[in-house]
Amino acid sequence: MTTSDDIAAVEVEAANAALYAALEAGDLDALTDVWVSGADADDVRGAVCVHPGWPVLRGRASVLRSYALIMAHTEYIQFFLTDVEVELAGDVALVTCTENILSGGEAEEEGELGPLVGGRVVATNLFRRTAEGWRLWSHHGSPVLTSGPDEE
């Protein structure tokens, strides 16, 4: 029997996948749709983002501007998500995952894709249920700098 929590978890996973699909496509409009909007988006409880190595960004405008900058300076990016876990608490959902990232470095010649580089980031994505559906409220990414016991 499917419960409302099961349905919500599927919806949250879809919203999380939409975040990464928008980033891969370089689609700022789609990314904008993923983030919380309205009255709460720019107050202290609103959109919050920490990209690896960046300071805390608060407010929808600052968060979306950061993604626009990232997209403008990234020729190619692909995410392979692993260790995806969803936890629900009423109208809030916590998604933790590992972002296995493949991206194109700077090309030597115009019009070519540069060398591919990989990296891993552990991400925490916090979603809120809104009238429009589940929307990203906070993203925090931390680079994985060491190998785990499975990789030694």
From TrEMBL:
Pfam families: SnoaL_3. InterPro entries: NTF2-like_dom_sf (IPR032710), SnoaL-like (IPR037401). Residues 12-144 form the SnoaL-like domain. It comes from the Bacteria. PANTHER family: NUCLEAR TRANSPORT FACTOR 2 (NTF2) FAMILY PROTEIN. This is Nuclear transport factor 2 family protein. It comes from Streptacidiphilus alkalitolerans.
